[in-house]
Amino acid sequence: MRRKLIAGNWKMNLGYRDSEKLAKDISAKTGKKELDSLDILLCPPYVSLGIVNKAIKDTGIKLGAQNLFFENDGAYTGEISASMLKSVGCEYVISGHSERRTIFHETNADVNKKVRKTIESGMKPILCVGESLIEREDDIFEGIIEKQLTEGLEGITAELMKGVVIAYEPVWAIGTGLNATPEQASSVHGFIGNVIQNLYDKNTAEELVIIYGGSVNTKNAEEILSACGIDGALIGGASLKADDFTYIVKTAANIKQLVK
Ligand code: 13P
């Protein structure tokens, strides 16, 4: 059974104490109703994972990382391994975020290694896919997303797909205040489902949690989260304010059905 997921990607924001405060504020404002009806995830920067883990301990709110390096250990200055993330309480790892693809030149092959390592280490990957503005305008976005999925999921069996989350994040909607319309997002989520059905089977596609990211805020959350095929959200800017993030969490909890 698919469960809704509302995740906050704090990106490179907030120091140690501010992270602790935000996590505590979010926990204080999150009730049983929300925790019973959906998964709530916080993805702070690496240095704050430990303190956020402590702040959300026993609350039911989950912890995730924004990235990892796919090697086990060794001479990789500045990198963080999957087992390190696991040891600090992470259950999810974001891979293939467009900021990593564009600024840090991560390829689909790199993303695939990260997704595989995340699963191998007993955590759940959130594989981000999405097109740039030019790719949408040129109407080649479906091909781009299909390639990101096919190459990003290479070697992952239908059984292992049970722990995978896909985030559709159109690059043109990230941090721009310009969200995809519910129709645009629904259409791409449906397309992602079809690609997964072709790569795997109908059941895997039906069980797959597909969340949307890109300028989700308190004003547009309800219509986006009510749209067909949208199982939750990956939130950047609005996840840095406890009131806004928990408002979106409560909005999601009040939407009864998950529809494909
Ligand atoms: P914004 O919500 O700030 O647009 O960021 C979305 C995002 O990139 C989440 O991963």
What attributes does this structure have?
single chain, 8-stranded parallel beta barrel, alpha/beta, TIM Barrel, 260 residues, binds 1,3-dihydroxyacetonephosphate
Please explain how this structure is put together.
The structure is a single chain. The protein has 260 residues and is α/β, with parallel strands linked by helices. It has one domain (4-253): Alpha-Beta Barrel (TIM Barrel), CATH 3.20.20. It contains twelve helices and eight strands. The protein has an eight-stranded parallel barrel, surrounded by five helices. Helix 3 (49-55) links the parallel strand 2 (38-43) and strand 3 (62-65). The chain is globular. The two termini are 12 Å apart. The model has no long low-confidence stretch (mean pLDDT 96). Bound molecules: 1,3-dihydroxyacetonephosphate (13P). The site of 1,3-dihydroxyacetonephosphate (13P) has 14 residues, from strand 8. 1,3-dihydroxyacetonephosphate binds next to strand 8.
